[in-house]
Known about the structure:
The structure is a single chain. This protein is of the alpha+beta class. Among the domains are: 61-132 and 189-355, Catalase core domain (Catalase HpII,  Chain A, domain 1); 427-509, no CATH class. The protein is built from 14 helices and ten strands. The chain has helices spanning 38-48, 144-151, 162-171, 176-183, 230-239, 243-253, 308-313, 332-348, 397-400, 427-436, 439-454, 459-472, 474-483, 493-509; strands at residues 61-70, 89-98, 113-121, 124-131, 197-198, 203-206, 212-221, 259-268, 294-303, 326-327. A hairpin with a 5-residue loop joins strand 6 and strand 7. Helix 12 (459-472) runs parallel beside helix 14 and helix 13 runs antiparallel to helix 14 (493-509).
Amino acid sequence: MTDDSKPPASTTDSGIPAPSDEYSLTVGPAGPIALHDHYVVQKMQHFNRERVPERVVHAKGSGAHGFFEVTEDVTQFTKAGFLAAVGKRTPVFARFSTVAGEQGFPDTVRDPRGFALKFYTEEGNYDHVGNNTPVFFVRDPSKFQDFIHSQKRLPDTGMRSNDMQWDFWTLSPESAHQVAILMSDRGTPRTLRNMNGYSSHTYSWVNAGGDRFWVKYHFKTVQGPENFTDDEAKAMTAEDPDFHRRDLRTAIDAGECPEWQLEMQIMPFAEAGDYRFNPFDLTKVWPHGDYPPIVVGRLVLDRNPENFFAEVEQSSFNPSNLVPGIGLSPDKMLMARTFSYHDTHLHRVGPNYEQLPINAPKVEVRSYNKDGAMTYRHAGAQPVYAPNSYGGPQADPARGADLGWPVDAGELGRYAYEKHREDDDFGQAGTLYREVMSDVDREHLVTNIVSHASSEVGDEMQLRVIAYWANVDPELGARVAAGLGHENGSSDGHASAQAAELVAGRANRA
Ligand code: NDP
């Protein structure tokens, strides 16, 4: 063997040739290990620090690189540079995730899926931080932490609890629309390639002339939506807990690059006030008939990460990363997320997380933030304060203006959302059940609910589950009651009678 054919010499992290990869430094063959064996000691020290805290939500993720390409002219709606010309391509990193489970959790459990995208645009990074569902469980950020706690683990046993989940959901009727989707087969997508992504939130766009629009994003899978049944999803948790991660990686390696078509719903700014639903309520969709989606472009994922930790784990998305031409909306959950995401990355990855290659923009950064742990990029000798007389960068309000909206000044207080004429917590879930789902979808929805609410959920809670679904649709309530064994004449007379009353009450009101 020539020297050239040898592997390269291992080194310390300072690049010094390592003394040995196999033997620690000892006093004689059986003697104590010397503390000054810095190579082995540093190996241990680094190993102990290999993990950063996992995300409290969306801990288990899979990711890939790709691009977004504009296919239709949307300059009448937005001045965003990366959407400025048909054919324009922007590099993207995508991270998909389950929500409630930890890092090692099986991929195919029933859960919404995160659908996060980082567009490395010429005007800085634009992050889209959505889910595979068009709505969410709550509409006020004060309930978010409680909702997540209810999906996680009990403090005493350390176990998840269906009873706890139904307790929160049935006490929070605004969750019904999202729970209907979660309990449908869309709660167990077959692969990450076979699910849609949605902004869920309403955002705003502004064109070069200053005209503003309210918008919703829909990334529609070109592979087609495909889901596992409850049984198939459960079987896959045992067969391959990393099934979704493996599938995405294998497909891209094989050149079967997954693709999504971006379709937008666009509402003229002035129509929000009179719209039949509150257009900023995260528990509602805008029916397609009201605002038909228009095609904007395509998202293609064509390159796997080289290093899972550096790219997938350390990628950090932030809904406040909006480029000129794209803005927020009065959705309270969205406004809260603009604080929460940056804050969690500061804690989890560190104050300079945006300097890591996966998070760094492809454009020059000229900010007045400085120093902190792990500073890598710095601005040299530029002034460290603004305003200054020494040529430091200056904000350009014409380019970076906030996208605002009129606000009726009111008393400072804690308010529910303003109700529009058709707003109702159960209405859109009922429409989904009656008008969109097929007979098979409805059948699976019932069996999925029954299976979930049968597992360590007590009688009283089951009655609340029945009432919840009877509010969505009386027939659905009756089917859930029957599935849970609470139909009239079943062995549990008391609970059955109550269930029958609940369903009948809803039916009379419907
Ligand atoms: P449409 O008939 O125009 O659209 C219904 C949409 O529902 C479909 O385009 C599809 O969205 C989605 N869908 C189809 N099957 C299922 C399923 N089994 N589970 C969940 N979603 C499904 O109706 P509307 O726009 O008038 O909305 C009616 C209901 O459809 C809403 O109340 C809502 O529950 C649901 N929905 C509506 C969406 C919207 O943005 N308008 C988006 C998703 C669901 P997709 O093409 O995005 O897969």
